[in-house]
Amino acid sequence: MLRYAYFPGCVAQGACRELDTSTKAISEVLGIELIELKKASCCGSGTFKEDSQLLEDTVNARNIALAESLNLPLLTHCSTCQGVIGHVDERLKDAKENNPDYFQEVNGFLAKENCSPYQGTTEVKHILWALISDYGLDALQQKVTNSLKGLRCAAFYGCYLLRVQKNLPFDNPFNPQSMENVFSALGATPVYYDGRIKCCGWPLSSYATEKSFMMAGNNLLDAMDKGADCIVTPCPLCHLNLDSRQPEVAKVVGQRLNIPVLHLPQLIGLALGIPPKKLGLNNHVVSTKKVLEIINN
């Protein structure tokens, strides 16, 4: 049995709770044990370092150390969390060898709070990478009970998953294939379009809302133009901008949208035969009825 120290992140416990429930649902079916890190804190979503790199490193050294104390890899299901925590892990592993004073400074702050020290002994791995490198696509395919044949899926990777870490051993950051390979294993048809590796616009949404929505709209229209029935993302922040704000985005781009946006674990859950309601597919702003009609025909 695969076991992971599960880092759910903030958004999956708030605005996108269906991501948390669907991740737990597919893990149960696949026989993956998740040990939730209930004492973990927010990764900072890339904003901590705007004030202090030391702050970002210390906060996430603590998160990683929680997983290390269990002797388990830290599992995320959020592109942003993966990018931030994974990059901190890279930086601190390098500091352990090449900048020991900084490494000790970070652990010194952890010691003041009676936290376990960061040791650099584990991995930070997104559920997408875990399914491919640890579980295996062949094993995943064997678990499919409800083929997604006929469903055309457009991946939306999220920039943090592809371009924050220096080393990306599981995919090509400029021409990724991992999501599309998962789609094929589930019986779905991958849709390739330029927007799949672009930014959703979320980071701009608080201070340049119209530009953010224009970015999201262009990506949605691009996927629709290529014939996608739905967009699937491994990032809850991308999901928020592409799904929950889609009605507002449509007004900005001046075109009708209405394309469903699924979290990656939700799509996998459908192929595993998990009921849509248990996956939280009824919680989306854009109805997922179209997706269910296609796979149930």
TrEMBL record:
GO molecular function: succinate dehydrogenase (quinone) activity
Residue ranges of coiled coil: none
Cysteine-rich domain sequence ranges: 4-85, 154-243
Family annotation (InterPro entries): Cys_rich_dom, HdrB/HdrD_reductase
EC number: 1.3.5.1
Keywords, comma-separated and alphabetical: Oxidoreductase
Protein name: Succinate dehydrogenase subunit C
Protein species of origin: Cyanobacterium stanieri (strain ATCC 29140 / PCC 7202)
